[in-house]
Amino acid sequence: MMQTNIDVKNTPKIHVQKDFLVVEQLSLQLENNPILNNISFSLPITGITTLIGPSGAGKSSLLRCLNMLYSTWGGEITIDKTSIKQWQAGEDNLRKFIGLIAQKPAIFPASIAENVTFGLPRKQRKQDTTTLIHDCLIQAALWDEVKDRLNQPAVSLSIGQQQRLCLARALALQPSILLLDEPTASLDPRSKQLIEISLRRLAKNMPILCVTHDLEQAKRLQGQLIFMCDGKIIETGESQELLQNPQKLETREFLRWEVCDCD
Prior knowledge:
Blueprint: E1 19-30, E2 33-44, E3 47-52, H1 59-66, E4 74-79, E5 82-83, H2 91-97, E6 98-101, H3 112-116, H4 122-125, H5 130-139, H6 143-146, H7 159-172, E7 177-181, H8 189-202, E8 207-211, H9 215-221, E9 224-229, E10 232-238, H10 239-244, H11 249-257
Parallel strand pairs: 3-8, 3-9, 6-7, 7-8
Antiparallel strand pairs: 1-2, 1-4, 4-5, 9-10
Helix pairs in contact: 5-7
């Protein structure tokens, strides 16, 4: 079972509450170009929140703000009412606490097992990590496919397997929040299905924010749905209800044509 806090010295103690992560009036400019404009939403203590919208809407930039890969934003991002800019344990530990998995798998030139434990402190990597590797690969729906070749190079895996390996590596750090940027883009249907199954299981014990362009995937993942366009949140609601009965004209146009004009 995933933990909802981490034991890191000087890290703020996390208390279970309805809104685990809260974003208020978040704005971002990059090279004087406005990227995000007054973004406000929250993630509950568990469950999946899916983020949809056209390319260039600011979805990936939003994820990078949430774990401080972008740090020049204005507004407020808090966990248990503590600003992430005041995270005393530092940005590196924040990124362990808020795991981010990119669209393209980042595989290191090492074995499958070593890729799972790559982000752990050196001292911990020298200990017996057999159980940890097993548990993380199970949660990432990859164990049965690689259990007999853990010492083989990770680059020998298919793209779908590599993406699930990245998920296992993120889980090895025991994050309390998981961010995913189009985790199943360009994957075969079977790999996509396995990742979705893993996400639904993980979401029973932690909040997950997933960017996707696949509206059918957003329907399958259920939970909360956020529609973004032109750096703004246009509409938020329960996924099934919003997909079937959007209230905003911009949302209706996007769901019908998968394009919009929100300027």
